[in-house]
Amino acid sequence: MATLRETYTSDVVPALTKEFGYKSVYAVPKIKKIVVNTGIAQPQDPRQRRQVIDNVVEQLRLITGQQPQVTSARKSIAGFKLRQGDPLGVMVTLRGKYMWEFLEKIIAVALPRVKDFRGVSRKAFDGRGNYSLGIEEQIIFPEIDYDKIEGIRSLQVTLVTSAETDEESRRMLELLGMPFEKENN
């Protein structure tokens, strides 16, 4: 069975070239990177906070296959009881082999495990060809051991592409197998 990267090269590039009339294979849109991030709730006890952060980092590492980094607050906001330097979330940027493996895992394994799944939104493009996907539960990934998590977390997955329009990006993702919701007529 062909990998997603091989499918992109052998099937998607020729199809997009024919459909949009690109003059060169270098003009065909491609996925540059995938950014995965999640937020961290702030327990008041510093020992619990460290444990939650370590747990979330480990979960994201298992899901993506790459070591994530902890993001922290740039400035203090009293209304949110937030101090400068407090951890806010965990993120990882995937490129190359890890990016293709993660995208294949989302399309073939994780999304089909979502209960009552009807497809991902067709409207989550940013106007410049990038696509954002919200995943409500990290437990749809087979690597996550349900008994070892302290709580259900959502993930934000952003696919950054070289496409100039949303239409080109949507078509590329459709050809790669992204399960978009059916259009309402």
State the helical fraction: 25-40%
Number of helices: 4
CATH architecture descriptor name = 2-Layer Sandwich
Taken in chain order, the helices and strands follow as HEHEEHEEH
CATH homology group: Ribosomal protein L5
Net shape? elongated
CATH topology: 50s Ribosomal Protein L5, Chain: A
What proportion of the residues form beta strands (DSSP E)?
A: 15-25%
Can you tell me the residue ranges where pLDDT is under 50 for at least 5 consecutive residues?
Answer: none
N- and C-termini, Cα separation: 35 Å
- Arithmetic mean pLDDT: 83
Count of β-strands: 5
Number of structural units classed as domains: 1
CATH class reads Alpha Beta
Class from helix and strand fractions = alpha+beta
The description of the largest β-sheet is: 5 strands, antiparallel
Strand order of the largest sheet: 2-3-1-5-4
Q: Which value, in Å, is the CA radius of gyration? A: 18 Å
Task: Report on the architecture of this protein.
With 185 residues, the chain is of the alpha+beta class. It has a single domain, classed as Ribosomal protein L5 (50s Ribosomal Protein L5, Chain: A, 2-Layer Sandwich). 34% of the residues lie in helices and 18% in strands. It has four helices and five strands; from the N terminus they run αβαββαββα. The protein has helices at residues 4-20, 46-64, 96-110, 166-176, and strands at residues 31-39, 69-72, 87-94, 131-135, 155-161. A five-stranded antiparallel β-sheet has the order 2-3-1-5-4. Helix 1 packs across helix 4. The longest helix has 19 residues, at 46-64.
